[in-house]
């Protein structure tokens, strides 16, 4: 059920971005530093989205799972991505926390944080 909820959450997040006029550039981009769940763009930003999903009865809320350690891994992965795929767009780090229904294929509620953290102080 956990993997099903996670995969569903990432698909939900990508669809959410598309509904908000973003183009999906990549999903599950891997480097030796980590993974970016969804990379999307709009006219101004290249959005690096971390998606965290949890069951309704989970002890930890989804957004609490984006720790400083996780942020560092994301930033290093983004730096690697930007070396491989240079852009004029401004990078932005967003986070979406999703609480899944019992079936693992529905959303009870979600929180979307634009510009949730920055690379300042990490580089």
List keywords for this structure.
123 residues; Trna Endonuclease, Chain: A, domain 1; five-stranded mixed β-sheet
Describe what this molecule looks like in 3D.
The protein is of the alpha+beta class and 123 residues long. It has a single domain (2-117), classed as Trna Endonuclease, Chain: A, domain 1. 28% of the residues lie in helices and 39% in strands. It has 2 helices and 5 strands. The protein has helices at 2-19, 68-84; strands spanning 23-30, 35-41, 45-55, 90-100, 107-117. Strands 1-2-3-4-5 form a 5-stranded mixed beta sheet, with helices on both faces. A hairpin with a 4-residue loop joins strand 1 (23-30) and strand 2.
For the terminal residues, how far apart are their CA atoms? 37 Å
Low-confidence stretches: none
Residue share in β-strands: 35-45%
Structural class: alpha+beta
The main pleated sheet reads as: 5 strands, mixed
What would CATH call the class? Alpha Beta
By CATH, the architecture is named 3-Layer(aba) Sandwich
Number of strands: 5
Q: What is the string of SSEs from the N terminus onward?
A: HEEEHEE
Topology of this protein?
Elements: H1 2-19, E1 23-30, E2 35-41, E3 45-55, H2 68-84, E4 90-100, E5 107-117
Parallel strand pairs: 3-4
Antiparallel strand pairs: 1-2, 2-3, 4-5
């Amino acid at each position: 059920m956990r993997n099903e909820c996670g995969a569903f959450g990432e698909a939900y997040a990508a669809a959410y971005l598309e509904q908000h006029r973003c183009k999906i550039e990549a999903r599950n981009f891997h480097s030796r530093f980590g993974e970016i769940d969804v990379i999307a763009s709009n006219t101004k930003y290249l959005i690096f989205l971390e998606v965290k999903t949890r069951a309704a009865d989970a002890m930890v809320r989804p957004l609490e799972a984006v720790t400083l350690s996780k942020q560092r891994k994301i930033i290093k992965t983004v730096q690697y991505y930007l070396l491989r795929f240079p852009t004029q767009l401004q990078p932005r780090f967003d986070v979406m926390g999703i609480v899944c229904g019992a079936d693992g294929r529905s959303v009870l509620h979600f929180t979307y944080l634009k510009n949730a953290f920055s690379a300042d102080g990490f580089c």
